Amino acid sequence: xxxxxxxxxxxxxxxLISELAARHEVSAADLKAEEGDPAxxxxxxxxxxxMEELCRGVDAVVHLACGGWDEALTEAENEARLLDTRLxxxxxxLQAAVEAGVKRVVQVSDLCVFSGYEEELMVSxxxxxxxxxxxxxxxxxxxxxxxxxxxxxxxxxxLTLRLGKLVDVDALAPDAxxxxxWLAVSDAVAAIGRALEVEHYDGLVxxxxxxxxxxxxxxxxxxxxxxxxxxxxxxxxxxxxxRQEV
Amino acid sequence: xxxxxxxxxxxxxxxVxxxxxxxxxxxxVDMRPMPEIDDQRVVDLNSYEEIxxxxxxxxxxxxxxxxxxxxEGYESMDHSDLGAVRIVYFLLKxxxxxxxxxxxxxxxxxxxxxxxxxxxxxxxxxxxPGLSGYTLGKTLAEETCRNFARVHPITIAAIRFGGVFTxxxxxxxxxxxxxxxxxxxxVERRDIAQAYHLALTRDLPSRFEAFHIFHRRPxxxxxxxxxxxxLGFEPQYNCEELWRRGES
Lengths: 246, 248
Fold this sequence. Notes:
Chain A is α/β, with parallel strands linked by helices. Chain A has one domain: 3-Layer(aba) Sandwich (Rossmann fold), CATH 3.40.50.720. Helices cover about 30% and strands about 15% of the residues of chain A. Chain A is built from six helices and nine strands. Chain A has helices spanning about 10-20, 50-55, 75-100, 135-155, 185-195, 225-230; strands at about 1-5, 25-30, 40, 60-65, 105-110, 160-165, 165, 180-185, 210. In chain A, strands 3-2-1-4-5-6-9 form a seven-stranded parallel β-sheet, with helices on both faces. In chain A, strands 7-8 form a two-stranded parallel sheet. The longest helix of chain A has 25 residues, at about 75-100. The mean pLDDT of chain A is about 95. With about 250 residues, chain B is of the alpha/beta class. Chain B has a single domain, classed as Rossmann fold. Chain B is about 30% helix and about 15% strand. In chain B, strand 5, helix 4 and strand 6 (about 155-160) form a beta-alpha-beta unit. Chain B is globular and about 45 Å long. Chain B starts with a strand and ends with a helix. At the A-B interface, helix 3 and helix 4 of A face helix 3 and helix 4 of B.
């Protein structure tokens, strides 16, 4: 397959493109592409023309661009960037993908949209998100609507993968304390790879929506849907060395 | 109360600002000057600093501004519908930081558009905005309102209508029923102003409520009972007169 990746220079993006490159032809773009980096070209999701260029001749897109936080900017400027990147950017990516005849867009989202629930509840895909009003959580929540509406009109186009907090196991301090939304980057990369292959979605017909966090006992996020349905994926890293036995 | 009216130079906003002034102190903001309003400021709502300045001393907000088209001379501003969602976010953030407790957002009945042919739509139906930037933007802005009202002590009403007409100005361009596909969702501008006043002042059942604000018409597929029962909204004008004019 030929796969385009937005936000490819980020933490997850770099891990993803090196893995995907072994089996696929990868076109990777990021706002912050470094000069002379052959793997990642400069591409701004806020520029529709950039996304049209990126999506040309591509079979699938992995949309990771999310704005980030730049210390050189004011808080309001950063918040505006988060909202614009997730809203207009996601719209541009999906519009360009539709025009280019792309069959699958994997939209990477964040389990943080459930921050409003009691910690005792086990949250599944059937729960209504209750994000806080930070620009980050609002941008994540609202961008899911963009994906959902595109999938309503272009059935099957978007698979939204809500991921836990990404953790690089190799760089993890031995005394780090496990949090229930942890997810190994390697598992996130593997799940995105799987998301590119899944033929049919479970539950909602046209829109794929799946949760993924580490598979641990008494988990906060249900993995039933991603493990048992057509997606059939289980994360490998359970952070046994960092979990405190109760 | 001192009410900030955004989009106060507009076709609807100018009437809302004028009529709200009968009950409140009104501050109008728009990107064009509003000579008929005493307390008026030309602002670019894309600027968070300008939003904060405009909110000084304000008790409630009537947010009508929306980038429907590019005005000559303002091309540098962000006119996208999804950019307008960001403006709603920043207005609410600034309002919450200042303890402002009431916000009325001008939405549209069109956010339920793909459901139109299928069933009777009440305010509590989940929106189906589709991919039009306008309806998607209005939906995401409503969702932003819903989340702020859930988390913060601010009460927010979303007002939804379709076409707007006027019986005040002969020859003024209006969204007349025959030019608008869904005549049952039309409303006269002064009735919109009435709805803003009620939504800014009445107790609401929860901190986020949406209301259908239309002229009265029997057998509506979009019932207006909620606006009548909760807000006490009684439309004074009917577009029947416009149909009669069209016939003559």
